[in-house]
Design goal:
The protein has eight helices and ten strands. The chain has 248 residues and is of the alpha/beta class. The chain has one domain: Carbamate kinase. The relative contact order is 0.16.
Length: 248
């Protein structure tokens, strides 16, 4: 079994990653695949926490465009992350993994409140911790929630799991055949070029605290395990002197 190069990691998992080929909701086969990848990642000995997104059910920014109050729309989106968190919790438990869900919104019947010391205790005891409801505040994305939780729990790396995109490119690889993938990317270049790593608030928070970010495709078999064991997978966003582009 390969050995992990990180002790503790936060995995940002978008809601869209759970919907598979559907436009809405959760695809059961995709959920099982995600649970399998997390199980493989845990086997290398990393303490793993997961920040759950909710875009497969609701996006606050889209609802705002239809005239809905933004704060209300964002709270509704947080409930979508809770639904995804419970589905993932169930899928992981069915694979025999100990897991707990902590919500930034009080919802005590189905999830524990987020308490930093409790999250650390669960991780030290070998449990996967799923974070739901982002930061618990409107106007902040789950990307920012993932960055914040990574700082709070002392994670060594923030993993941005993408759906069918294997890293950060200098242009959209789905529409630009000449787009090249970054092997390494500096925080400043990602911010200045507005590359699709994460939202700017989250990226700035990572830069200020020198939290390395790895952007990778979760749907490549063994990708999560590979990232955690130090393989050159996806794009590393960090405090590097020079960005490195790979030819296609």
């Amino acid at each position: 079994m390969p050995q992990a190069v990180y002790r503790r990691a936060v995995l940002k998992l978008s809601g869209e990653a759970l919907r598979g080929q559907h436009e809405f909701g959760i695809d059961p086969k995709t959920l099982i695949h995600v649970a399998e990848q997390i199980e493989l990642g845990r086997k290398v000995g990393v303490q793993l926490a997961i920040m759950m997104g909710g875009g497969n059910f609701w996006r606050g920014q889209d609802a705002e465009k239809t005239g809905m109050d933004r704060a209300t729309a964002d709270y509704a989106g947080m409930l979508g992350t809770v639904m995804n968190a419970l589905a993932l919790q169930d899928a992981l438990e069915k694979r025999g993994l100990p897991v707990t869900t902590q919500s930034a919104l009080p919802i005590d019947t189905i999830a524990d409140p987020f308490i930093r010391r409790e999250a650390l205790r669960h991780l030290d005891n070998g449990r996967v911790v799923i974070f739901a409801a982002g930061t618990g505040n409107p106007f902040f994305s789950t990307d920012t929630g993932a960055a914040l939780r990574a700082m709070e729990i002392g994670a060594d790396v923030l993993l941005m799991a993408k759906n069918r995109v294997d890293g950060v490119y200098d242009a959209d690889p789905r529409t630009t055949p000449t787009a090249r993938r970054f092997a390494k990317l500096s925080y400043l270049e990602a911010l200045n070029r507005r590359l699709q790593v994460m939202d700017s608030t989250a990226l700035s928070l990572c830069m200020e605290n020198r939290m390395p970010i790895v952007v990778f495709d979760l749907f490549v078999p063994g990708a999560l395990e590979g990232v955690l064991t130090g393989k050159q997978i996806g794009t590393l966003v960090a405090d590097v002197q020079e960005s490195v582009l790979l030819a296609r």
